[in-house]
Design brief:
Blueprint: H1 2-22, E1 25-30, H2 55-59, H3 70-78, E2 81-87, E3 120-124, H4 127-132, H5 152-166, E4 171-176, H6 182-195, E5 198-201, E6 207-208, E7 211-212, H7 214-228
Parallel strand pairs: 1-2, 1-3, 3-4, 4-5
Antiparallel strand pairs: 6-7
Helix pairs in contact: 3-7, 5-6
Length: about 230
């Protein structure tokens, strides 16, 4: 009888912990790597995968279903619930975009208020800042002006600072793409250390037309999971 009661208690504890874990909600703040048409919020965000932003190049990428994306894999394989995926193709962290255009309407720092109520926030940015060659700026951790936010380092620090304040109960992770400029990669490392935020530096990501293939998506999922499970 004692063994039966003990077994029942252990099973109860297991199911309680399993259900609590499964209820963890993830929100994503990203760029094209995290898009898939019909699965981003707001729906007007440009999408590279299953969208119009990639043109014929995205048609040549072998990711053909949302189930093949890194974030959908992560949620399905490890029991997370996706809260909000606020990803926008071509977006930069800072307000400077390609050809030095003003990207204030799509910048990461502009979209921080629309992430729902997550337990975990995954910030996957910096790729377009690197590709577009935006001004790098200086390390700055307070007293930002609008002008400061057109440079990468001040904008990335502002982004993390704001997320910490806006979502105090969430755990924040930064994800850094492989093959970015040394300035952007090292700056993300340094700023994450300042805020004591884990920076997941990706490596060996297979890409087609600059974007993760199915194999690349699988690798991103695995590397992000390695960080989350710790």
């Amino acid at each position: 009888m004692k063994r039966i009661c003990l077994l029942a208690l252990l099973m109860q504890a297991f199911f309680f912990l399993s259900s609590a874990y499964a209820q963890q909600k993830i929100s994503i703040l990203g760029d094209s790597y995290s898009t898939y048409g019909g699965y981003v919020t707001p729906s007007t965000n440009l999408c590279w995968y299953n969208g119009t932003d990639g043109g014929d190049k995205s048609d040549k990428n072998d990711v053909k279903s949302v189930e093949e994306t890194w974030w959908h894999r992560l949620a399905q394989e490890h029991g997370y619930q996706l809260d909000v995926n606020n990803s926008y193709s071509g977006s930069t962290v800072c307000c400077t975009g390609y050809r030095k255009n003003d990207y204030s309407d799509r910048a990461f720092i502009t979209r921080i208020l629309n992430l729902g109520n997550p337990d975990i926030i995954l910030v996957f940015g910096g790729t377009n800042d690197s590709w577009a060659g935006v001004p790098i700026g200086e390390f700055q951790y307070a007293d930002w002006t609008k002008k400061d936010l057109y440079r990468f380092r001040p904008a990335f620090a502002y982004l993390l600072d704001a997320l910490i304040r806006l979502y105090p109960s969430a755990t924040i992770y930064s994800i850094t793409n492989s093959e970015l400029s040394a300035e952007v990669t090292n700056s993300m490392d340094e700023i994450c250390r300042h805020y004591q935020i884990t920076n997941i530096r990706l490596h060996d990501i297979e890409k087609q037309w600059g974007h993760p293939s199915v194999k690349g998506m699988e690798s991103i999922c695995e590397q992000v999971w390695e960080a989350l499970k710790r």
